[in-house]
Amino acid sequence: MARRQVSERQYMRVRADMPPGHVRTPNYLRGKVGWVERTLGPFPNPEQLAYGNKADPLPLMRVRFSMAEVWGDTSQTSNDTIDAEIYSHWLEPAEAPHAT
Amino acid sequence: MPHDHHDHLSPSGHPYRPDDDHPLTYWQQMEIAVRELLIEKGVTTAQEIAAQIDAMDARSPANGAAVVARAWTDPVFRDALRADASAATREMGFDIGPMRLIALENTDTEHNVVVCTLCSCYPRNLLGLPPDWYKSRAYRSRTVKEPRKVLAEFGVTLPETTTVRVHDSTADMRYVVIPARPADTEGWSADDLAKLVTRDSMIGTGLPKSPDAA
């Protein structure tokens, strides 16, 4: 089983926009940069599924963010991390964040 | 009358607990209506519904504890669990349905904790019903912001050298934490080890019991 794929370890920025409707991308992660911890394969797009529409399969990624990236100076311990599952259409390639 | 304002107190002086008999909510009425219609139309039966409720009630953290104890004692299973937790637990005979499961292993340097900020995703098929606090707004909002403080309130104080990894279960995956095996348990059977595994230790808000507490 091929668990490692090319897209893993890449830095990605979560789209910052706030569209109306059913979205699984948490608000607090929008605009933040993390790296793909692992890819999870295709899952039906929840934004279509929620309205009973035919749902396209979309790659789902587990993205790892540092606390410093997400909460800035207010983070408790900057090296701690948050992982979240983000659908690929919410992710754009990005440079590594400067915060460490 | 002097006793009027005491009417809501019991003879012992304590207030009576409010009766939980209240009118049905809109959604409770809707559920009953839909259920009765489905039975009337022959889509399902009352027996099938009762059997499904029994099956759900039978799921308990003991299932997850058996998985953890096996991971502690069987290195081949532990690797299989890390590679594909859905397949490994299914192979153990647990009916996990279509659930996609990821096992997160605690080590000397990493501690994992699970939350669902959007709702309350939880591996019910393996751990049973979630505790009420898991669904609370406070747990969901604070765990991603100040995990160490939340963990300390649960009695888990971690050194700075341990990295805390918070897992926000936002979409299609469910998570179970494999806590570190307690010290001084060499030679223990998987059955005995499973008794040390608590529900909270598989969410990450607790640690397994120590051997002398078993």
Outline of the structure:
The complex is a heterodimer of chains A (100) and B (214). Chain A is mostly beta strands and 100 residues long.
Order of helices and strands of chain B: HHHHHEEHHHEEHH
Give the class of chain A from helix and strand content and strand pairing: mainly beta
* Rg of chain A computed from alpha carbons, rounded to a whole number of angstroms: 14 Å
Arithmetic mean of pLDDT of chain B: 91
* Individual helix count of chain B: 10
* Shape annotation of chain B: globular
Sheet-strand content of chain A, in percent, reads 35-45%
**How many helices of chain A does DSSP assign?**
2
The low-pLDDT segments of chain A are 1-6
Q: How much is the radius of gyration of chain B in Å?
A: 22 Å
Q: How much helix is in the residues of chain B?
A: 40-55%
Subunit arrangement of the protein: heterodimer
Rounded average pLDDT of chain A? 87
Described by strand count, sense and barrel closure, the largest sheet of chain B is: 2 strands, parallel
How are the strands ordered across the major sheet of chain B? 1-4
Q: What's the total number of strands of chain A?
A: 5
Give the spatial strand order of the biggest sheet of chain A. 4-3-2-1-5
**Fraction of residues in H or I helices of chain A:** under 10%
Segments of chain B where pLDDT lies below 50 for 5+ residues?
A: none
